Amino acid sequence: MDLELTNKVAVVTGAGKGIGLAVTKALIDEGARVVAGSRTTETLDDIDGVTGLALDLASPGGPAELVEAALEEHGRIDVLVNNVGAVRIRVDGFLGTSDDEFEWAMQLNFFIALRTTRAALAPMVEAGAGSIVNVASVNAFFQPDAGTIDYGAAKAAVVNLTKSLSQEFGPKGIRVNAVSPGQVGTDLWLGEHGVAETIGAATGVDADEVRESVIAGIPTGRFTTPEEVATLITLLASGRLGNVTGANYVIDGGLIKTT
Prior knowledge:
Layout: E1 9-13, H1 18-29, E2 33-38, E3 50-54, H2 62-74, E4 79-82, H3 99-127, E5 130-135, H4 149-169, E6 174-181, H5 187-190, H6 195-203, H7 207-215, H8 226-237, E7 248-251
Parallel strand pairs: 1-2, 1-4, 2-3, 4-5, 5-6, 6-7
């Protein structure tokens, strides 16, 4: 199937690893040109068609700098994928989660997406077309718990922003959708200081046991791969789903049993 992304210009945040790197590769495979923002670009430098930009997207001016680089190189932006995100498990619950920790979660998981979207919307509106895909999380709405209370609140804000922008900018030719993964096999979950290791250290359980207990609750019996999330994002970014906007697609191996 031709996804109609050949020579389209895409901006991807958090593109250096995990879901962001998988999205970058998927877009390139479909013929797009990608301007990829990440703290480091070692994993991006050898990919044909990718312009890697090393920058701190958490700084107030970082998102606009990334968008401006795409405009300077290509003259337009057709697709924006807001992928940057991070979680720290709050083992002491709500009362042990400070304002500073909530602010950290909002900055990383909401404000980067907000600022990058704001920067990208002006050229998209001028062009009369564009597709934005935001990476949210099932933690935004599925069994929110104290361990991810700040992360879940930030991702819920991403989902809300997605729906609001889809209403405002749909008449201007711009689609805005979200993808909410469940557990994904990335460093966020499985890496050093990741979710499994953090929960294990707090409960005295081996990280592998934590992972297996989580898998036991997923009907497919495994974590989602970054490539599977990237496939969904790429499809949403493409013109083949030109009348889909304001949607939030869940990809979680059947974790959520209700709609």
